[in-house]
Design a protein that fits this description.
43% helix, 161 residues, binds flavin mononucleotide, alpha/beta, single chain, Rossmann fold, two-stranded antiparallel ribbon, 2 domains
Length: 161
């Protein structure tokens, strides 16, 4: 039985998806610190983490749990090849779902903000046709969080309850 939705979020989009899952499934929601206090070794969980430079954040902290599936929250478009590369880069065995989150510069600070600004400047200089969508997002921000995006993951988790 799934004991909780555990998440690692930086600017809030992953938390929103975790809250939506928690509400729909009626299971508690914990961030990694709370999970440490509330859960036991081998407890069944669903994990959601934000993507930073292709790495799903928080994965190293959930090794003690029985992870039923993983949601990766990033801002890049939902494409099969991208999801496959996330699975490989993060060496995942558990089922992976990609959930498109968003981007909010106002909530970013320090190095993370600088890295993103650097990538944006580079892309703008190169001005490649295939990067125009992501350049626009980097410029204006975006929010793609929706129940529609969550549906495949919700269906999967429901089938495991
Ligand atoms: C430094 C940095 C690197 C990022 N790298 C990626 C990436 O490799 N792939 C991606 O899809 N999104 C990337 N993003 C976008 C975040 O994953 C996206 O904003 C996500 O919704 C953040 O979730 P959160 O609000 O829960 O922190 C990056 C964002 C930052 C700040």
């Amino acid at each position: 039985m799934i004991k909780a939705i555990v998440y690692k979020s930086n600017t809030g989009y992953t938390k929103q998806y975790a809250e939506m899952l928690s509400k729909s499934l009626k299971v508690p929601i914990y961030n990694l610190e709370e999970a440490k206090l509330k859960l036991k070794k081998h407890d069944e969980i669903v994990f959601l983490g934000w993507v930073c430079a292709t790495k799903i954040q928080g994965l190293s902290k959930i090794k003690n749990y029985n992870v039923k599936c993983i949601g990766a929250v990033g801002v890049y478009p939902t494409e099969k090849n991208y999801i496959e590369s996330l699975r490989k880069t993060n060496k995942l065995n558990a089922e992976l779902f990609y959930l498109r989150g968003g981007l909010n510069y106002n909530k970013l600070t320090g190095l993370k903000k600088k890295v993103l600004q650097f990538v944006r400047n580079m892309m703008e200089k190169e001005n490649k046709v295939e990067n125009q969508e992501i350049i626009k997002i980097f410029k204006e921000g975006a929010n793609y969080v929706s129940y529609e995006n969550l549906e495949p993951m919700l269906k999967y988790v429901n089938s495991k309850l």
